[in-house]
Design goal:
Elements: H1 2-18, H2 29-33, E1 41-47, H3 54-60, H4 71-82, E2 87-96, E3 102-110
Parallel strand pairs: 1-3
Antiparallel strand pairs: 2-3
Length: 112
């Protein structure tokens, strides 16, 4: 009997979840459009890479999309990239993203 009640409860919860209505029209914009807080990293980009793969750079940078923007963390990421000795210049910019967060962009110049 206990198992059948558990199974019925599970089926009911699943059915209710599948039939749940969309957020109301007066819900916060973040629920309707996938917006993020203005101090959250929306994305991390790399520009100027030719020989060094984007995947390699992503493994060196510990900041990730969804993290709260932290200047110290971005400096740590800059240092990690610089210490590879593969770049003669690295610039870091930040700008507003399309969903309200921050885009962190590392613009690099590879060593010849």
């Amino acid at each position: 009997m206990c198992l059948s009640v558990l199974v019925c409860s599970s089926v009911l919860v699943t059915a209710l979840a599948q039939n749940s209505p969309p957020p109301p029209a007066n819900a916060p914009a973040s629920q309707q459009t996938g917006r993020v807080a203005s101090n959250v990293i929306e994305g991390i980009e790399f520009r100027g890479t030719v020989r060094v793969s984007q995947d390699s750079l992503k493994t060196l940078v510990l900041s990730k999309a969804g993290d709260v923007y932290d200047e110290k963390a971005v400096r740590r990421d800059f240092t990690a990239l610089w210490n590879t000795k593969q770049f003669e210049d690295i610039q870091v910019t930040k700008e507003a993203g399309t969903r309200g967060g921050i885009i962190v962009r590392f613009v690099v110049t590879e060593r010849p």
